[in-house]
Amino acid sequence: MIKTIAAPRIFHVTIDVRKPPFDNVKVRQALNYAVDVNAILKTLYFGHGTRLATVVDKGALGYDPSVQPYRTIRTRPRRSWAEAGFPNGFEVEFDSFTGSIADHSKPAEAIVGYLQKVGIKVKANVFEFSTFGPRRVQNQTTPLFIYSIGDAYSSPRG
Fold first, then answer.
1. CA distances from 62 to 6, 57, 95, 122 (A)
2. What is the pLDDT of residues 39-66, one digit of tens each?
3. Phi, psi of 14 (to 5 degrees)
4. How many CB atoms lie within 10 A of CB 22?
5. How many CA atoms are closer than 13 Å to the CA of 131, on its beta-carbon side?
6. Close Cβ partners of 117 (under 8 Å, ≥ 6 residues apart)
7. How confident is the model at residue 154 (pLDDT cuts 50, 70, 90)?
8. What is the pLDDT of residue 12?
9. Closest listed residue to residue 146, CA positions, set 25, 129, 57, 157
10. Consecutive H or E run containing 44
11. Mean pLDDT value across the chain
């Protein structure tokens, strides 16, 4: 018998808000509007995943069910780029990696595709985790990168 169970691994895109253009809230919002997370869950994970609005898992201390994820609105990002002063989009690099607990390069590839569809020129960088890990710890990643945390919010077991 095979049983599907929930795993406490939460994938997220880290956005360095200290670096332009990501210091602009409209740019960050537009990134969220551009990516169809539900389609990624359906296609890459065969519907076995739950979309969250934050990196805090359901049932964990700090989870707030009133915070809802962004809806995908493909027309919204281009207007947001213009409002933020980037009418022609911008260029950025996006880091991902393989060789870890889970493959981060496949969802990153999908995210990059969505961003390219709304006018962002994205260069995808894929590292082995043995190279990416030290880069992340030393703050040498690009302003956008995919990462995940697992079991970070579980209560201690006695």
1. 19, 9, 28, 33
2. 999 999 998 889 999 988 888 888 899 9
3. -90, 130
4. 17
5. 8
6. 34, 74
7. low
8. 95
9. 129
10. helix 37-45
11. 90
